[in-house]
From TrEMBL:
It holds the Pfam family GSDH. The keyword Hydrolase does not apply. This is Glucose/arabinose dehydrogenase. InterPro entries: 6-blade_b-propeller_TolB-like, Glc/Sorbosone_DH, Quinoprot_gluc/sorb_DH_b-prop.
Amino acid sequence: MNVRTRRGPAAVLLGLLCLLPPLQAAAQATAAVAIAPATRVRVVVVASGLEHPWAVAPLPGDDPAAGWLVTERPGRLRLVSRDGRVGPALAGLPPVDARGQGGLLDVVLHPGHASNRLVYWSYSEAGDGASNGTAVARGRLDLAGQRLEDVQVVFRQQPKVDSSAHFGSRLVFDRSGRLFVTLGDRFSRKDDAQQPGNHLGKIVRIEADGRAPTDTPAPVAPGALPELWSWGHRNVQGAALHPDSGELWATEHGPQGGDELNRVERGRNHGWPVITYGRHYGIGTRIGEGERRADVVEPLRVWRPTSIAPSGLAFVTSPRYPGWQGSLLLGALRGQALLRLTLAGTRVVQEERLLESRGERIRDVRQGPDGWIYLLSDRSDGQLLRLVPESP
């Protein structure tokens, strides 16, 4: 499907008249960047009948049963076989508090999964009264028994709050085998995301067994929890390691506009809710102090005034997609598209929107060990999709 820029001739002309010097500078700056033309792709439906699927983890191996693990937000983890059959819900998961945006969320394999069979997943866990919070559990996958064994909860967001929104929940293993966990602000209107002594609006990094790493000799801020990596986040639902640098990149939801793409560094403040490009819902007034501050990380890209609601993030390293190597793919829920960003270092030099005519809420994006790109559509009859390039 061709990528198209959604701007009319008048808008383009006005932009050229008003912004000619910046556009010339941008053209000069990106002249050396190899930008591939819009790539035609077709979508292959791998599996259907998934109820609000949230994450997909491709399984390694040639066994026809070893296809993909897919989470469904109502609380089920299913095995989808290579021939597209959706299996029954796997047994062994702890209870899930599936309300609002909560439920069974991300799923990833341990880097040593081939030998230890460990699977990690995030979910909303009930607390006292109506409170809940993001939790992370792990277990050993028993494909023959259709279950997870030796299940342990390795992380719990603190404090639990009475909310059904902004759970974050993306899980990413770094190159040392430690686990990044993105944690939403739980739709708090206070400045909890700016307080380093809690888990609200944070990204943490933990050992595979849940302990705080001991390789960080000093806290990232006074009073910070030892597992804290970064703070000032609203709701990070896309995260991936850069294939060259190993750095964590992430996308997060703004409110009314202000969605962000960030390069996440240890000990850095990302601003929310005091520094943001977003606006108050409905009335459109400014939130916090403004859009920039010296101690706050500047996003690599911002989507405004209209949010795309980014979810799912993957770097393309596969040779199956000519011209796409090094691109960054992200799903858009509100935007109902797959975005491909062409990068020059840490600069975004081009954005292309794919699959807009399908009208799909793209929840997750993964590159599988087979080199194909897989997507999840978030709806009551959700699908697991594969992207296949069309011949020129």
